[in-house]
């Protein structure tokens, strides 16, 4: 396999890592108004992701840097054409990160409520807009002969892209609520499982609609098989949650997100940014990639660095593997 094709799939894997890991962070943040009956409950929710949320976000940095180095034309076209939604995502991520750090700095309820709102919005906005962005990449956008985006912001808000955004929003929300059930005990764990059942039904219906649309309009045989796998793992996760198997439910939700991302990349292949107005203007793996020398250096760097990063992140999750309870929060307050 040529290195440019290899790096196309490496980019897919990096975004899988980001959406799976930061996806449940988004879901936990969005669950605050549904599961946080009081301040202690909200602190329990935040503490389930407290040790790992910033580590999870590094996957986005790595994915962006790898995209810039391996496919500079793709990076330039996407980040310039999608400048406003990507800026909104960045501002939302900043607001969420600031809220995690500043929420506990003062005891006033209004202070905490303000930052809780920022966590909720800072989680929901990226969860929605990432789906909108990737759906537009698969659908294709108007490009000129120099591969520059010539549409408007509102052209990105088409029905297919909005359905993609709603799909990622619901997938991440359900993923996060299942994670809460996996990481907590007592009443909040029971309520999280119940909420995951209710949101799971809606998620299955919306995600199935998006995957069918993707397969019929832009799919290939490979993407159709991946979409079928995503649908089956999503239903299996729902069943596992019904039976109280939180670990299996979480793992199967992660597999669902991974297969859904692979479905989009398989539908895109061999393009990286299709031109909806003129196929001749499309960016492909061939015309958007870096030189073979650059890709070779990147491959050796990734081969050395990736195992170290994965071991460190796995160690972090192992250290903070225990469940978070109200008793832990109340003890820490004294």
From TrEMBL:
One Pfam family this chain carries?
Answer: Cyt_bd_oxida_II
List, alphabetically, the InterPro entries matched. Answer: Cyt-d_oxidase_su2
Where in the cell is the protein located?
Answer: Cell membrane
UniProt KW keywords = Cell membrane, Electron transport, Heme, Iron, Membrane, Metal-binding, Transmembrane, Transmembrane helix, Transport
Reading the lineage from the top rank, the first entry is: Bacteria
> Where does the chain cross the membrane?
6-32, 74-94, 114-137, 157-182, 194-213, 219-240, 247-269, 297-320
Membrane-related topology note:
Multi-pass membrane protein
Q: Which NCBIfam families match?
A: cydB (TIGR00203)
The UniProt entry's sequence similarity note says: Belongs to the cytochrome ubiquinol oxidase subunit 2 family.
Name of the protein described by the UniProt record: Cytochrome d ubiquinol oxidase subunit II
């Amino acid at each position: 396999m040529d290195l440019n094709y290899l790096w196309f799939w490496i980019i897919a894997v990096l975004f899988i890592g980001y959406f799976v890991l930061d996806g449940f962070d988004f879901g936990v943040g969005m669950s605050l108004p549904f599961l946080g009956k009081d301040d202690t409950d909200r602190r329990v929710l935040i503490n389930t992701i407290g040790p790992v949320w910033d580590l999870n976000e590094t996957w986005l940095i790595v994915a962006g840097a790898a995209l810039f180095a391996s496919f500079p034309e793709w990076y330039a076209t996407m980040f310039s054409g999608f400048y406003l939604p990507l800026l909104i995502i960045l501002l939302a991520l900043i607001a969420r990160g600031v809220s995690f750090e500043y929420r506990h700095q003062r005891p006033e309820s209004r202070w905490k409520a303000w930052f809780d709102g920022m966590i909720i919005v800072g989680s929901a906005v990226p969860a929605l807009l990432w789906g909108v962005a990737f759906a537009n990449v698969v659908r294709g956008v108007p490009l000129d002969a120099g591969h520059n985006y010539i549409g408007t912001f509102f052209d990105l808000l088409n029905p297919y892209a909005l359905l993609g955004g709603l799909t990622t929003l619901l997938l991440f929300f359900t993923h996060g609520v299942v994670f809460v059930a996996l990481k907590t005990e007592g009443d909040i764990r029971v309520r999280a499982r119940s909420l995951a059942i209710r949101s799971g039904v809606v998620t299955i219906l919306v995600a199935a609609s998006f995957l069918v649309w993707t397969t019929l309009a832009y799919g290939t045989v490979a993407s159709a098989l991946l979409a079928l796998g995503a649908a089956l793992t999503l239903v299996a996760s729902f069943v596992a949650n019904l039976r109280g198997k939180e670990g299996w439910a979480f793992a199967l939700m992660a597999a669902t997100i991974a297969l859904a991302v692979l479905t989009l990349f398989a539908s895109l292949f061999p393009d990286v940014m299709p031109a909806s107005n003129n196929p001749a203007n499309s960016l492909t793996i061939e015309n958007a990639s870096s030189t073979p020398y650059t890709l070779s250096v990147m491959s050796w760097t990734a081969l050395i660095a990736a195992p170290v990063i994965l071991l460190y992140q796995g160690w972090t999750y192992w250290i903070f593997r225990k469940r978070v309870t109200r008793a832990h929060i109340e003890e820490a307050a004294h």
